[in-house]
Amino acid sequence: MSGLSQRHLIAIKDLEKSDIQLIFDTAKNFKEVLQRPIKKVPSLRDITIANLFFEDSTRTRISFELAEKRLSADTINFSASGSSVKKGETLLDTVNNILAMKVDMVVMRHSSSGAPQFLSKHIPAQIINAGDGTHEHPTQGLLDGYSVLEQFGSLKGLNYLIIGDIKHSRVAGSDIPLMLKMGAKVKVCGPPTLIPKYIEELGVSYEPNLKKALEWCDVANVLRIQLERMDTKFIPSLREYSLYYGVNRALLDSINKNITIMHPGPINRGVELDSDVADSKQSLILQQVENGVAIRMAVLYLLAGRV
């Protein structure tokens, strides 16, 4: 078994189909490790990883930290709040100072699209993108794909729907290329103001009517409205958005099929997704969180060349 074709994980679009399959296969092995009484392996005990989060995060940050600890790596955790970034230090200076402490890998979340790619061209450490602006969130795309694979056994020919704020979503930016590479059909649904104009050029179709979109799909990944990334008003109100694009029990019961529901979190309950759907048996949301650790263990392990 050979390793990944890429030295960094910046974007799903950089990966070959064989890379994605290798990550899935490796994650499956690590998921078995996570079921053991002792959930730790010595695979990366000689590797030092810096977690650089220039943007708030809960699930992704904890998931990466846990994955690193399960692999016995040494970790450094950096948060922009309370750091020299507040004093005007540049991104490159911040990272170079951390690298001077002999760091092998950098896991980075940043509000600017392209920040991880910029770093990958200027520093020797390997970069893992934990979300950059409105560009991509590759490990989220991988864990979403893996969660669906577990549920259905294959992604080929699957009807995969993404609902909500596609324009500002880095999750959509990673899910779309991953699902298409693995043979799924992808459709998006949401207000026209939140759908990129070029969406159909990606091989994705657009359905403005939520009920019609749900009738088509096998899996629906529901995204939240990214109010913090909007510099203008794209929807009249959250109440109106929920009325037309909120996924609730009554709507699902009106459709004569069992649809699998996903959400990358955090959920705005009562806006894009109601609690009786989010917490139902057809929801994969907690499996997504669990699979996030195994997927991130697989990515760290493979990038370190431990194949």
Strands in their spatial order, largest beta sheet:
7-6-5-8-9
The CATH class designation of the largest domain is: Alpha Beta
Approximately what portion of the residues adopt beta-strand conformation? Answer: 5-15%
Helical segment count: 11
Largest sheet: 5 strands, parallel
> What is the total tally of β strands?
9
CATH topology of the largest domain: Rossmann fold
Overall shape: it is globular
Structural class, by secondary structure, is alpha/beta
Q: How much helicity do the residues have?
A: 25-40%
Distance between the termini: 7 Å
From N to C, what is the helix and strand string? HEHEHEHEHEHEEHEHHEHH
As a whole number of angstroms, the C-alpha radius of gyration is: 19 Å
Query: Which assembly state applies to the chains in this document?
Result: single chain
The CATH architecture of the largest domain would be 3-Layer(aba) Sandwich
CATH superfamily of the largest domain: Aspartate/ornithine carbamoyltransferase
Q: Domains counted in the coordinates: how many? A: 2
